[in-house]
Amino acid sequence: MKIFVCLGLALLWSMTANAQVYKWVDEHGKIQYGDQPPPGIAKDRQRLNLRTTTPSNPPESNKSKSLSEEREEFDKRQKQRKEEEVKQLAKTEENKKKCIDAQTQLRVYTDSPRLTVPDGSGGVSYVDDDARQRKINDANKAISTFCK
After folding, report:
1. DSSP secondary structure string, 59-116?
2. In this predicted model, what pLDDT tens digit does every residue of 88-121 receive, in sequence order?
3. pTM for the full model?
4. d(CA 143, CA 53)
5. Of 46, 51, 141, 148, which is the most exposed, with the fewest CB atoms less than 10 Å away?
6. In this structure, what DSSP letter does residue 126 have?
């Protein structure tokens, strides 16, 4: 398969290398270009010798160096992309946990008729309606933030 590709490219290259280009000025004074000789009514005609040039090949040491540098840059970008994906995944998992916690808190504050919380001295105190509403509002804000 590689042989056919190389043969085809060589054939195309050889066709363009042997092409002749003509330049002439027509009766209206416009410069015309073509691959055929100009018609007999042309005032001035000129055959252009166009040579196809091959790009200068850099030495192999520079070529391999640039390829290795490109490979290093590619590896760095790929590593950064993977790190960003890991960070994004960790953030997503953290937001998921916070979402579940906020939904649980909302259920506790809306479903419990008489909510008790520890008072810090080993006892229990009841939550009044204002504190319950503040906790419900806080839980709703957390849900809107973390549950997307």
Report:
1. PHHHHHHHHHHHHHHHHHHHHHHHHHHHHHHHHHHHHHHHHHHHHHHHHHHHH-SS-E
2. 999 999 999 999 999 999 998 888 878 887 888 8
3. 0.46
4. 67
5. 51
6. E
